[in-house]
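Blinded run. Sample ID left blank on purpose so nobody reads anything into the name before looking at the predicted structure. Input follows.
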Amino acid sequence: MNEVERVENGAVHEGLGEGARSGFTQAAWEEIRRAYGWPRTCFPLALFAAASWGTWDSFSDGAGDRLYGTFTLLAPVLLVSYYVIAQAWREGISFGRAVAGTVRLGVALPIPLALANGLFVVVAWMFPVNRAAVEGYDGSHYYVRSFGEHLMLTTIGTVIVSACVALLVLILVTLPLLVLRMPADVAAETRLRRVGSARARKVSISLVVCGLSAFTLGGLLLAATRGTEDIARTLRDVWRAIQAGDASGGELAWFLGILISATGAAAIAGGIGLFVVARGAGRAESELQPRAESGELDQPGSAHE
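Blinded prediction complete.
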């Protein structure tokens, strides 16, 4: 390849990269317009009102005794989660489009609301009573130590958290809904399309996706309660507490997480196993079909005739 060809190929690849970036930006902007446009704007406005109330209350809640301060973090998360779940009923939705749409929603959708919340933090900080309330805790608030941290958490922090939650909602809710609504279409987008039996494709993809959702949910319960370190010993201790009737709520939640994770793992293994068996049976059938058509596979008695 000469120098001219290398330059031309480089220009083509650069143009493709710019087109992909501009396409993502345009699609993200369309998602923002859809979510914040009238009459859907009522939902983000209600979330902004709740977040503003939580921000104002948090200045005087240095010990974190009230939960209103969490509204600032939850508002973008709820907005993104709603639209990630709503993808399951969009016209023309598919497995790949749901994944790509979740990335766009998780990155773009919380930005306007987070910026509005950040602006309210700046306005609220201008009131001397709020500054005095924070400074009254020796500069150590229950979740921030300075105004800069407060502003960063309200803006950049909520966007990052919303993007992470969007992926979790995709795995836990949206993909299982898609599989339950259109198992054949989802299977056609994966390697399961190689399986000849339509029923096997539907059952296999349903087991794998729903099993992944259950396994993730169980893992979250484990991480939020007693963790995953030394599971065998913890399981023995928790089971003894359950038998004795003195298990705490955290121990019961941890045990429930174990059951959900085990069920999810079994479903994933069953779906993969069904795929392997069904694909092997399909291969055997496809190999026998040409031989049957050519007359090589005759009835057993024909050889003696």
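Unblinding after everyone has recorded impressions. DSSP finds eleven helices and no strands in the chain.
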